[in-house]
Every structure is written in C-alpha cells, then in structure tokens.
Amino acid sequence: MKPTDILSAEHRVIEVVLDALEHLIVDTRRTGVLELESAKSALKFIRTFADRCHHGKEEDLLFTKIYERGMPRGVGPVAVMLDEHELGRRYVRDMLAAVDAFERGDHAAARPFADHAADYVELLRDHIAKEDGVLFPMAEAMLRDEDRAQLVAAFQRFEITDLDAGTRQEMESLAARLAERYGVTPADQRTAPTAGGCCHGAHGSCH
C-alpha cells in the first residue's frame, strides 16, 4: 500500500466524525443544549486521531520526505496544509473552551460550540478534498519506491512509539459508535473522492 493510501483511508474515518459532528451541530442549534457525551467523544477523536495520529504522520513524515524530493518550504501546497492544521487546532481549542463552560453551567456556550464546530467541519472537509485530490497525487509523483517503503514502515513505527497501545483501535471504535448514534455511513463503506480542489490559502495555490 502507498503511504498516501494509508492517509486517505484515515480521511474516511475522520469524515465519519465530521458527519456525526454536523448532526450534533444541528441538534445543538435547535435545542440550545449541548449533548456533552457526543461533544467530548468527537473532540477526543479529533485531538487524538485526526491531529496527533493523522496530522502527525503528515507533518513529521510525509511532508519531511517530499521536502527532500524538492517540495518547497514556506510556500505552496504543504505550507497551505500546515496553516490549515494550525487553524483547525484553534477551532478545537475554542470548542473545548465552550464544552468546559457549558459543563460549568453556562448554557449560552452551546451556541459558540456549534459555531466553532461548523467552522472546523467546513475547514476539514475542504482540507481533506485538497489532500486527496491535489497534494497526495503530487506527493506520489515525487516519491521513489524506496521512499514509499520507508514511509509505510515509519507510519507503523509512529503508531507504536508515539501513541499508546490500542489507541488507534480505540479511536476507530469511537468513530464507529458515533456513526451508529447519528446514523452516518461508517468508514469501511466510504471511498475517496475522485476530484479535489485548489489549495487556495495564505500561501497561494497548489497549481
């Protein structure tokens, strides 16, 4: 399997939680009440799987390798992806603050949670489309066969050394429970989109 296939498959798991989060946003805006268990589960998944595991592999391994093969630093598609990773982390911090405030009795915090969550979902959907449709094909065109083998092995080591034992399985189970709770399509029934968008952002375009 190619390293970008592994990352793209992880996108399908992330999309499960984005779908569930959209349902939670609708419910929260309709009722004015934040369902804390679902919110905490979604945030745990986002921080552990989407950011620490998935973005960690991209930032520490894939991006480093394609820099070696000539991808520019500071401008271009990888720079845009890194900016979006940081923006996503800011939205997550805002969601966490809203959850904490709601749990402490500030029920008005339900609305900010929904707003920040909606921003996050919109960002991640666009981000995933750009990676699947633009950045990953560019990366594959730059990588050599030995790079691919090294990255796949490095991804496996990453999950052993940088994550606690069973963390990936726990996160996949959490996503499956959210899928069941909100009636969204599970990860194993999803396929990658065939077309992506342009990497527009502060650093320019993918093209």
Strand residue percentage: under 5%
Secondary-structure-based class equals: mainly alpha
Measured distance between first and last alpha carbons: 26 Å
Uncertain residue segments? 194-207
Kindly identify the CATH topology. Answer: Four Helix Bundle (Hemerythrin (Met), subunit A)
Number of helices: 6
CATH homologous group name: nmb1532 protein domain like
Q: Largest beta sheet, briefly?
A: none
**CATH class bucket:** Mainly Alpha
**What's the SSE pattern?**
HHHHHH
Mean pLDDT score, rounded? 91
List keywords for this structure.
207 residues, Four Helix Bundle (Hemerythrin (Met), subunit A), 6 helices
List the helices and strands and how they pair.
Elements: H1 3-31, H2 36-68, H3 77-103, H4 110-142, H5 145-161, H6 167-182
Task: Describe the protein's architecture and organization.
The chain has 207 residues and is an all-alpha fold. The chain has one domain (3-185): Four Helix Bundle (Hemerythrin (Met), subunit A), CATH 1.20.120. It has 6 helices and no strands. The protein has helices at 3-31, 36-68, 77-103, 110-142, 145-161, 167-182. α1 (3-31) packs across α6 (167-182) and α2 (36-68) packs antiparallel against α3 (77-103). The longest helix is centred in the first third of the chain and has 33 residues, at 36-68. The protein is elongated and about 55 Å long. Residues 194-207 have low confidence and may be disordered.
Summarize this entry quickly.
With 207 residues, this protein is mostly helical. The protein has helices at residues 3-31, 36-68, 77-103, 110-142, 145-161, 167-182.
